[in-house]
Amino acid sequence: MKKLLSTAVVVIVCFVASAQEPSGKGKNKDDERREKINALKKQAEEGILIFNKQNIFGLQLRSNGYGIFYELGKMKTNRKTNLYRIDITEIKHYKEEKVPAGGVVFGNPYIYGKVNNFYQLTLGFGQQYILGQKGNKNGVAVSLLYNAGLALGFLRPYYLEIQDPMVGQNRYIRYTQEDSALFLNNAVIIGGGGLSKGWGEIKVTPGAFGKFAFRFDYGRFNEVVSGIEVGISAEYYTKNMEVVLFQKEKQLYLQTYIAVLFGRRK
Asked: 93 and 71: one domain?
């Protein structure tokens, strides 16, 4: 009887001890989790960009204008990220030149011969490929970017304020066959029509675009995006975009740009 009781006690003690010990499977998961966290910390210390998603805003200066953009990036591998991007820009013709109204320097200037303001909206998909990691927190990560997609060109009529000699009153006009003589007569032009004119008369032209760029990320912390982007882009529209009179109209626009970036990663 005593031997039977001793055996039962030993069995119970072994069962309780085994129940209190963590299973091998749970221990492995904890170890894997700790190793992954330690690896990410080490990569951050070494300047390696690791994230799930990034939101980037940018201000860009182009060889023929200026603009802004927003970009959503989703990392696929340690070096490759899918990009979804929208750009809004204004294109300036190289012949545009502001003229002081009536020769007065501080008057309301206007652009002689301009018939339309030209805005662009591009919606694109692309990828970012990291060519070189930072090496440390104070380093610079270098990436190659490319994207392409839909381009929309918006032409907003350019208005002038003139003094109509026929009625002796001021009025706003855009370029038409009827008002072409007044539109091109410096003697009657008072100044530009301002930003409030022409929005209800915008004409939209579809097209396509492509873009290549290099990105230099010098942000000290991986969670913060700070960098510069330098690239080249091209847009092609289904018809000529008229901006300035007596100048060759174009369907293809090719330009270089530089942009300042800021945003967040997580």
From this structure: yes
- Both tokens of 50, joined, read 């690791």
Is-contact 215 143, C-beta < 8 A? yes
Tokens of 225: 């995006």
Q: Which domain holds residue 37?
A: 1-45
Residues 124 and 159 in one domain: yes
27 and 119 in one domain? no
CA distance linking residue 196 with residue 161, whole number of Å: 12
158 lies in the same domain as 237:
yes
C-alpha–C-alpha distance, residues 80 and 57, integer Å = 19
Backbone angles phi, psi at 181, to 5 degrees: -65, -45
Which carries the bigger pLDDT value, residue 165 or residue 71? 71
What sign results for the dihedral spanned by CA atoms 173, 177, 179, 182? positive
- The pTM (predicted TM-score) of the whole model is 0.78
E-state strands within 39-183: 53-62, 65-75, 80-91, 98-99, 110-111, 116-132, 141-157, 160-164, 169-173
Clarify whether residues 119 and 226 are in a common domain: yes
